[in-house]
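JOB MANIFEST
job_type = single_chain_structure
chain_count = 1
residues = 543
[input]
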Amino acid sequence: MTRLTSRWLLLIVTLALVACSPTPAPATQASTLAAAPAASAAPPSPTPTAAPSPPGLALASIPNPFDRRQLAAGTPITQNGMFFIDVATGAIDAWSLRADDSAWPAYSASPDNRWVIALADDAAYAADRRSGAAFRWARNSTYQPVAQGDSLLFRDDGRRVWVVGSARPVPVALPCGPADGLAISLDGQTAAVAVGRALYLVQLADLACRQVADVAVPAGSSLEYLYLQTERGGDAFTVNLDLSIGAGTAHTSRLQVERYSWQGERLGELTLPAGILSPDRRWVAWGEALSDAVPAVVVADAATLTPRFRVVGASLCFWDYGGGQWLADSSAFVVRTGAEYRMVTLDGRLSAAPTLGAPGDLEGMTDEPLPAPDRADLFAIGRRAVVDANGNCLARPELGEAGSDWSYPADISPWGLDSAEMRFALPHFGHGGHCGEAEYQLPARVELAPFSPLVLAVGLPAGECVNLRAAPGKKAELLTCLPGGTRLSLAPLAETHQAEGQEPYYLSRSLAWASESQWLRVRAPDGQEGWVDAKAGNVGWAP
């Protein structure tokens, strides 16, 4: 049995989510329009030539291919699409691709929630929620479009960038390229383009390109990947370099983050482990594996990487979304533990994260609490509802069987740039978990820096003992029996031979919740290493 299989079993039953306090009402129709501010001047650059889209690109302006419906709070959702729920009223703006060859298009939205994007089997579509401008392109590109404000940037397989938008129905190529990275300002007027290690700003009003920097890779490092990203606040963008340092067992990965204003001013640089930077850029949280079965989250000063504390028995892995997030005011962040999700404050206090209703509201499905980008007291729960810090439900759609068995919301961020709307898409496509399965045999606890070696103990009464085996599984060779009170340390994994009929190790890892056993590799006081069933031995933190 796998994570994906368990999701299939659950989806056999029709989802029926009840709204907070709605009175179902019939759908109505609506539409809207919009515009954007001017961009700053730039030095002369090659004059772009307006040209029709080449046959290989097949990017063209089309009539709006989406059906748009305004649903009152509590109206059941009965078809797939992209949905934007007004947090204040519960009303939903629903967008669904009209009949096409794909029964289950994959929907998403731009960061500012202005553009709706749908990927069907042989084509992709985008529409501006304000103006109704819409575009279609063939799904022959490995790159996703970048949309914001009035503009949509599309990168073809030759990495040439084309720009279209509400006021630009004919695609025009950017004069700087081929592009290795793209970002766009919140107003949709300025683009940042990485061409190799050269960084350009492009004023989209006249397509003027201006080089603002050469991105340097530190000595002794190799560049694995480079990408650009608009910061959550929108007043800056980042150039992110995924670096590889050293080789073999000494190999490490680092993320170099360079900040720039949309005027081209370099604002600073941080070099971090792969992790999550706080909104105020003062703190970083990253995940570590203290052993194969014991994850931890370290919180450190972002400038010096000096650890402040770590949460043992926790990770930044969310079942479906992919990672924990900081609160908007940088006061705390969310981690996953064996007791579901927890909030961790900067002074190292653990508390329960907000939830939606009683535990098991949707049996077997986890409800990731994702903080709003602009409010520390607001959370999207599993992309199915909005709650405040006390768990009070503010907005919740009623999800029926929307034309398929995939009625659980898709794995996209529920928030745009602010908390005015929570967005979600149907259908959900199973994937077996986003960032691997951690075991969480041990309860989460906070340890202040400097960190000491972890000490465990067999929690059985005196006179009882638990078996230490050569491999995980009840049929593995018995090494000794560890009496109650024995103090243990975690041991690293070692290659073990899997004998015929032996319990597969994966049963003690990703499906530990479905197994009677949870195996830890430990070192006994005499130095002997082996596997112990943490459940059978009541193994936990030493007093």
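[summary]
The first strand starts at residue 60 and ends at 62.
The domain at 454-541 is CATH 2.30.30.40 (SH3 type barrels.).
exit_status = 0
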